[in-house]
Amino acid sequence: MSISVPAEEFRERLAAIPGAVLVQELPRHAVVVVLGSRSQARALWALPGVTAVREDRPEHLA
C-alpha cells in the first residue's frame, strides 16, 4: 500500500485498527500491512495518509 506520511506516523495511526500490523517499510512511501481480517480493509482505506491499497493474499504451497 502507498502512504503520504512518514512510516512512523502511519504506524501510530494504524494502531486504531485492532490486529493490524505494519510489517515492512518499502521505498517510495510504501508499506506492507497485515490485517486481522478482510473486513478491516475499509478502516485501512479510511486512515489519513493512505493513498493506495493493493490486496495481496498469501498462497499456501502444497
Describe this structure in words.
The protein is an alpha+beta fold. It is 23% helix and 26% strand. The protein has two helices and four strands; from the N terminus they run βαββαβ. The protein has helices at 7-14, 41-46, and strands spanning 2-3, 21-26, 30-34, 50-52. The strands form two sheets. Strands 1-4 form a two-stranded antiparallel sheet. A two-stranded antiparallel ribbon has the order 2-3. A hairpin with a 3-residue loop joins β2 and β3 (30-34). The termini are far apart.
Features:
62 residues, alpha+beta, two-stranded antiparallel sheet, two-stranded antiparallel ribbon, 2 helices
Mean pLDDT: 90
Share of residues in strands: 25-35%
- Count of helical segments? 2
Order of helices and strands: EHEEHE
Q: Which sequence of strands runs across the widest sheet?
A: 1-4
Task: Name the shape in a single word.
Answer: globular
Annotation, overall tally of beta strands: 4
Regions with pLDDT < 50 over 5+ consecutive residues? none
How would you classify the helix and strand content by structural class? alpha+beta
Sheet with the most strands, sense and barrel status:
2 strands, antiparallel
Helix content: 10-25%
End-to-end distance = 28 Å
**How large is the radius of gyration?**
12 Å
Strand-helix topology:
Layout: E1 2-3, H1 7-14, E2 21-26, E3 30-34, H2 41-46, E4 50-52
Antiparallel strand pairs: 1-4, 2-3
Write a brief structural summary.
The mean pLDDT is 90. Strands 1-4 form a two-stranded antiparallel sheet.
